[in-house]
Prior knowledge:
This protein has helices at 2-12, 107-111, 135-144, and strands at 29-44, 47-67, 70-86, 89-94, 117-122, 125-131, 168-174, 178-189, 193-210, 213-230, 236-251, 254-270. With 271 residues, the chain is mainly beta. The longest helix is centred in the N-terminal third of the chain and has 11 residues, at 2-12.
Amino acid sequence: MKKSIIVAALFAAAFTTNAQAPKLPAGTKFKVVTESNNITSMSMMGQDIELSNGSKIYEVCELKSVSGAGYHLSTAITRITGSVNAMGNEQKFDSEDASLKSNRMVADQLKALNKPVDYTIENGKVVNTVSAAGSEVLNALLAQNNGTNDQAKYFLTLPAASIKASHQWNVAVSKPEATTESLFVIAEVTDTDISVNVLTNVKLSNTLNQNGMEIKQNTQGTIKLKRIYDAKTGMLKSETGTGGLKGTMNVMGQDAPIDLKVTTKSSVVPM
């Protein structure tokens, strides 16, 4: 029922807005810090298990070039910290800890450190991604961010006439590992800020490798986001989100139902 309502809302959106180029010049750099907290409940072999996972990702981003309604954005993760709590056993990690180099649990994430990922963005959508870290790392990070890590979010590129309360548009993205349908609504416009609410329907189908064990996940659900943009530059200032995903996790040929609750918080600071 919820999915039907979301799809209906997407089709009822006034129109898909034609994007413009970012207002800021090429060479603009900024830092992004994203905190995520996930609680996963699952049932396996007759046992109920709850897993709590928190992470903090530090990124450095640069607007490489701007042309027409498109632009190129480069991002590099510089640090990852976090913790995992399963059945009362808590493990913490920090990518700046040299001892982690031999820890297979975070091997994929460590591969991504300080390696740029270049995005081509046109009309508000990522149309191409080139990663020096490899596709397996991108998939792992996508799973960690539950499909919400949309690199097109950093600049609000609407025409000036569309920057008004209640204006709405939709964006659909389909990839092998994730499909999203998002409805965007401008909630408020002030002299300093533009507030945008995002309702995203997510489907994830990804495979992770942990300690040499292949884990396949198939989940779907809804993520609600609130983004605050700078009214003068159109650059993202902050993002908060909550949501839930349900589905199955396949481990060693056995399917286990999973229920994931997620909260996220990002802050953006110009360099």
